[in-house]
Design brief:
There is one protein chain. The protein has 112 residues and is of the alpha+beta class. The chain has three helices and six strands. The chain has one domain. The longest helix has 8 residues.
């Protein structure tokens, strides 16, 4: 089972996905995979944090459930070593284009 997360609100570059700015995806048993966007310049967790903390920005799951920023952030930045080997697995190289300074996996590809 997977869940995609989207940001809604006023941000630079508008809404390139047409349905909120795709933040990334959590698949049960795997670490959160972040989606990078050249516009509005979200390519690491620091830039995502800045965008998501901006006034008027909200986070929703693909099912339409609003998620408080702090709850989302705690979940999305959890590293496999912090969760334990049997609770989360690291993403494979094929799905990750790079990891940021926190070790969070990022992809520029659209995924669903």
């Amino acid at each position: 089972m997977s869940t995609n997360y989207y940001a809604f609100g006023p941000f630079p570059g508008g809404d390139p996905d047409g349905e909120g700015l795709h933040i990334g995806q959590h698949v049960g048993g795997w670490e959160f995979l972040w989606r990078a966007h050249d516009e509005p310049g979200v390519i690491c967790t620091d830039t995502w944090r800045k965008l998501l903390d901006a006034p008027g920005v909200t986070i929703f799951t693909e099912a339409g459930v609003e998620v408080p920023m702090e709850d989302f952030w705690r979940h999305a930045t959890l590293r496999p070593a912090q969760a334990g080997l049997y609770q989360m697995r690291a993403r494979t190289r094929s799905s990750v284009h790079w990891r940021d300074q926190r070790g969070c996996p990022f992809s520029k590809a659209k995924f669903f």
